[in-house]
Write a structure and sequence with these properties.
Elements lengths: L1 H21 L1 H7 L10 E7 L49 E7 H12 L13 E11 L9 H14 L19 E10 L3 E8 L6 H21 L4 E7 L3 E4 L1 H6 L8 H15 L6 E8 L7 H13 L5 E7 L8 H8 L6 E6 L5 H9 L4
Parallel strand pairs: 5-6, 5-8, 8-9, 9-10
Antiparallel strand pairs: 1-2, 3-4, 6-7
Length: 369
């Protein structure tokens, strides 16, 4: 019986995850799960799966095939309302959602399959590991501070029993040198952080809360995928209007300024962050910039100089996502296309609304770099 229950539970989990895969595009574009994530898993709302069951009527109330009636006459009592209209009721509804916990690793796998994303090939010497001592073995020699009391006692007991020196009436166990066992260690490779994602966002007045929500949703899925490709992942955030600065995640998504826009200011902060904290030979570096396409006058050339000399040579990918805004001009992406028409490291994406998140992620991550 227990085997049947476990089999049914596995089958139920397969059905639920099948529902999630079928609706993954909806979850990607609308971000239902971002507010429900924990450290290693997220809770996803899926439609309630109804279990078939019998429904009994009242005794003596009649039913199909009983009583008088004509062919084609609707079944039901006079006054029944098939449309379900009426006032408030006290009965529970049938449209409940069930929250299912899914690991980020599972989500990343679903995302990769759905978008047909290739696995990322880390560059250069980026796979950094450190040796960590782990006490996972036993030896016959070692310092007394590492003596394994239980194993030493058992060895001594076995020796005394085998040599007929053990006295059950006087169970006095005295270990000798050959009985002693000591904890020992092996050096185990411990993966270290070897990739960094740097998010850059325009927070000037033309970027509204709707555009920031699009950025937040897309960044969640980008992080989920990259974290599945590396043993460790570090994330940094830069905001800018006419000036730029590095901030924490909460500030990144909840800041709005009223000034103008100079994209070169963000590129300067990004280049400095990479040179000081993330040596190019040891790190896989990903930059994702989001803007509505506004930039101040003659700032484009300064931005291009920084991009060409500092950022593109240092990064695995530099991804620019232009989020459509009713206030932004949208000119910067066209300037990038003209300047870098054949550059393999720079990826451009236009995101008109939430529905565009799906294709934008595929555009950014589809090259497997």
């Amino acid at each position: 019986m227990f085997l049947n229950i476990e089999r049914d539970q596995r089958r139920f989990k397969q059905i639920v995850r099948g529902r999630i895969r079928e609706n993954l595009r909806k979850y990607i574009t609308h971000g239902e799960m971002i507010g429900r994530r924990g450290k290693d898993a997220v809770s996803i709302p899926v439609p309630q799966l109804d279990i078939p069951r019998f429904r009994f009527g009242k005794n003596g109330s009649g039913g199909v095939g009983q009583g008088e009636g004509e062919v084609g006459q609707p079944i039901g009592k006079p006054g029944d309302d098939p449309g379900g209209s009426g006032g408030a009721g006290s009965e529970p509804g049938s449209g409940h959602l069930m929250e299912v916990e899914v690991t980020l690793e599972e989500l990343a796998k679903m995302l990769g399959n759905e978008l047909e994303l290739p696995r990322i090939e880390p560059k250069g010497t980026a796979n950094i590991t450190a040796e960590k001592a782990k006490y996972n073995s036993i030896r016959q020699t070692g310092p007394e501070s590492l003596r394994h009391f239980k194993r030493t006692y058992l060895n001594a007991l076995r020796r005394q029993i085998s040599t007929n020196t053990y006295q059950p009436d006087d169970p006095y166990i005295v270990p000798i040198k050959s009985d002693k066992q000591y904890r020992s260690w092996n050096d185990v490779p411990k993966p270290q952080v070897n990739a960094v994602v740097i998010y850059v966002m325009d927070v000037s007045g033309s970027m509204t809360d709707d555009q920031k929500e699009i950025v937040r949703t897309e960044a969640f899925w980008i992080d989920t995928w990259l974290a599945s490709q590396y043993q460790g992942l570090e994330t940094r955030y830069i905001i800018h209007d006419a000036m730029a600065k590095e901030v924490d995640e909460h500030t990144f998504y909840h800041t709005r300024e009223s000034g103008g826009t100079r994209i070169s200011s963000a590129y300067k902060v990004c280049a400095k962050l990479i040179s000081e904290s993330f040596p190019v030979d040891d790190w896989n570096i990903y930059c994702f910039q989001f803007s509505d396409g506004d930039n101040w006058g003659d700032d484009n050339q300064q931005a291009f100089d920084l991009l060409s000399e500092k950022l593109l040579p240092a990064t695995n990918l530099f991804c620019y996502g232009q989020v459509e805004s009713p206030y932004g001009s949208g000119d910067f992406i066209e300037a990038l296309r003209k300047q870098y028409s054949e550059h393999d490291t720079l990826i451009l994406s236009e995101i008109p609304d939430k529905e565009g998140i799906y294709d934008s992620i595929r555009t950014f991550l589809g090259k497997g770099k």
